[in-house]
């Protein structure tokens, strides 16, 4: 089963640990993390949204002590991560391509080429006037999530410990409301993952595009504040949008624990709930690979066939599995980008 995935943090992993030769690490194999080209091929991972994400300065310093003396320049780091994606495409000998349209993604699938879509997770470094956003669009970025967990000029990301409501802070600022309109005007995807509930509802009122949560789960099953209430799921369905199911233990388990003795049945439960609440056209996968701890039963990207076996054993037919794996992302991206 070929899979298009809605969210991963490969670029951050490469930027932190393989900055000198990221493409070589990607194609030769990476010991740390969930994603590299050999394991993608093994698991049937054929494309996805690759996040450009700048963690807080203290996290970068803890992971790369030699970088601690460098000035913290988030906008520069974003461009460096986008350049890593370009290096992967350039070094691929035709095996990977940065895609800017659903036609290009479809062509990659037909040709057996890895489809790379650039996505911004957290707009903290972007200016309020939209100049940096436009520059990233022209450089190939086609999707933006305004928030991670921390406040920025556009609003406040969702935060808080399990169990908690997603209603964790104020909504969009005036700059945030303008930002949603800027993203709409460029026909980029707006990602509502990491939005608190007030910012979500502000976005639902303002955005002219389908609402998309690229890597979020059902709050009814796991009361992480990052997960979505049934009312939010209904709004996403009403907008003709989509939710990509996150594979992180902490977003799956009813007890909220990050421990990896999590059954694949937990992913199936979230699929079941989202399908019941939203319908078969509005659910897909947003693994969050390289950004979370995964169930041991899944492991890394090479374990995707085991997930599809679990879905089949739960009664999911081939047509539904193909929608979850590929078709629903193509539908919502086509609606958004055209």
Structural description of this entry:
The chain is of the alpha/beta class and 338 residues long. It has a single domain, classed as Alpha-Beta Barrel (TIM Barrel), CATH 3.20.20.140. 43% of the residues lie in helices and 13% in strands. It is built from 14 helices and 11 strands. Strands 1, 2, 3, 4, 5 and 8 form a 6-stranded parallel sheet that branches. The chain has a 3-stranded parallel sheet with strand order 9-10-11. A two-stranded antiparallel ribbon has the order 6-7. α1 packs across α5 and α12 (264-278) packs across α13 (304-313). The mean pLDDT is 97.
Topology summary:
Layout: E1 3-8, H1 10-17, H2 22-28, H3 37-43, E2 45-52, H4 57-63, H5 74-90, E3 96-98, H6 102-111, E4 114-121, H7 131-138, E5 141-145, E6 151-152, E7 155-156, H8 174-185, E8 189-190, H9 197-206, E9 212-213, H10 230-238, E10 242-245, H11 249-252, H12 264-278, E11 283-285, H13 304-313, H14 318-337
Parallel strand pairs: 1-2, 2-4, 3-4, 4-5, 5-8, 9-10, 10-11
Antiparallel strand pairs: 6-7
Number of domains: 1
How many E strands? 11
Average pLDDT figure: 97
CATH topology: TIM Barrel
Helix content: 40-55%
Number of helices: 14
Class derived from helix and strand content: alpha/beta
Kindly, what is the distance between the CA atoms of the first and last residues, rounded to a whole number of angstroms? 27 Å
Classified in CATH, the superfamily is Metal-dependent hydrolases
Radius of gyration: 18 Å
CATH architecture call: Alpha-Beta Barrel
Dominant shape: globular
Main sheet specs: 6 strands, parallel
User: What's the CATH C level?
Assistant: Alpha Beta
Q: What portion of the residues fall into strands of 2 or more residues?
A: 5-15%
